[in-house]
Input
Amino acid sequence: MLHLRLIVPADRTEEVTGLLRRTVGTTHLVVLAGAALDPAGDVITCDVAREAGDELLRGLRERGIDDCGSIAVEDIDLSLSRSAVRAEEDAPGEGADAVLWEQLGEATHEESTLTVTYVAFLTLATMLAACGVVLDNALLIVGAMAVGPEFGPLAGICTALVQRAPRLAWRSLVALLVGFAVAMVLTVGFSYLMDGMDLFSAHQVEADRPNTSFIWQPDPLSFVVAFLAGIAGTLSLTSAKSGALVGVAISVTTVPAAANAAVAFLYGDYGQTWGSSQQLLLNLAGIVVAGTLTLVAQKYFWAGQRRRAVRKA
Output
């Protein structure tokens, strides 16, 4: 279930409550007349089944409630109410499968913005992966993959393509490209420093690395793994199962590939640099293609669900 808190001008309250009453899956409607001070108006709260939330939010925004008042949404972890059970039963589909496009857009907007924190996390992840590459240590590689924040901009690109939002697409692309560029340049400097301290060496990079050699040797399976991870990551975002993102993070070779390219470039091994760059591009492309197709499939699936619900009504 979702909990909505609306601030509505007093002369629009009847219109909004009418919409809420007509929306299948809505319950626990409360109106507090004159309770809001900034912006001034009435406060309306209600609970709505997650599978009906997207349609309701779209209706509220079409009426301009976000411009003249406020729309706040939060997840309900526990609701002990027979009325809530009926509302979820009446709403079409299953809540776990529902997509809240407004929530997805807001989440990807935050995660796909180029910030100092984003660049810092990506840089630290790449440096950790550089240590893992040189030491041929799979545990360090997995740790670096979990730290990397690059799935945010990738999800932003997928969302922007489906929602036709060029500003989100541009912001996400800038965050992705600039983030990796800065991380790789700083990792080259980090590797140079480690070499000066005799902690990194060309011999380590050129030696057989059975645990990490896959990073700079891309093959068709690299794209397949990235494609599957892109589907899983997108589903985890749209269904609010964020824990699955950890599994996605440690299944794709984006950060390790960037790290291997940086270290190999320092020692003049351009074969490894090119192979790592190909691995990076394959993984990024696989995630974007899979994420976009997943969102398109979910969009048409829910459109069909709504049409069937209207015909039954």
